[in-house]
Amino acid sequence: MKFRILPVLGIVLLLLLGYLFLFPVQVDPVSWRPPRAPALEGKYEVNSDLRRVLVLYEDRCHACEDVAIDAQGRLYGSSVTGEIIRFDGSKSEPELFINTGGRPLGMHFDFLGNLLVADADKGLLSIDPAGKMNILATAHDELAFGITDDVEVGRDGKIYFSDASHRFHLHDYKLDILEHRPNGRLLEYDPVLQETKLLLDDLYFANGVAVAADQSFVLVVETGAYRVRRYWLSGSRAGQNDVFIQNLPGFPDGISRGSNGVFWLTLVSPRNPQLDKMMVKPLQRKILARLPETLQPAPERYSFVLGINERAQIIYNLQDPRGKFAQITNVQEYEGQLYLGSLADNGIGTIQRPR
Hints:
Elements lengths: L1 H21 L31 E3 L10 E3 L5 E4 L4 E5 L7 E5 L4 E6 L5 E5 L3 E5 L5 E5 L1 E2 L2 E2 L3 E6 L5 E5 L9 H7 L4 E7 L4 E9 L2 E6 L5 E6 L4 E6 L8 E5 L4 E8 L5 E8 L2 H6 L3 H9 L12 E6 L5 E7 L7 E7 L2 E6 L5 E5 L3
């Protein structure tokens, strides 16, 4: 019996090794040495400020990625089900605003009351107050958007949005991070000309977008590079770009403009030391891509929000290591409150804006 089992085990082992080393995968990783992750001390000191988050509408808006607020103060949440739910405090029950038929991520209202939506599957959308949906853009220069991710509107009505990866779709977003190639783009849509313009390409998983209060620049998050990049819209540096803040202690996700010159930046999860070590080893990451998703690195249940001023100085550091409302993906400030979206939890988180 022993001699029969051993050959079988040998064959199984060879098949397993062949799969791990030779099975075709989509990713083509490159070597990258990340900067040493900053310690969670000083400006990043661990605290429990976000443990005070109150969760609204917990039974609605599943994996409520982003929150938008209209001129009447009503909340809108983008759900993993494709639904955009409207929460009106004057009504007892939330209501369905629209189902896009895709995966709505970032949202922002324009000055005409239209809800702009970055839908990972459908592209850049505009939804009028009556709930009629119009697809504004799905590609640029015949290169289709893979993950239309976040959206912001400038004072002149121009729309700034990100395509996280033109190579991968949302269900394969981890593969883009593992590959670490610059597949992301920052784009501008002119609603008058109905044209899309490329502002930046070669971005590492382009994510959250925010425009400065004086409209001089737009920020775009590079989740895969642990940083935020700045593109200058006006002034002597118009058309140029630079790094706004880098070497963050987690995976940055959403960014939005708050009051008093503050940008709210979310870190959806702390950095993974093992993944950082693997980034210099493409073969290991290729093997990792062949493993079942349950064995691949995953975001932690951790809450992390930073308040950053226009000089890229961190003035607010809000955390909750226990992750009462975890994997926060976006923050919207309104009348002294912060409203939080989440990749992992249901409903909308809210907490008073720190003074």
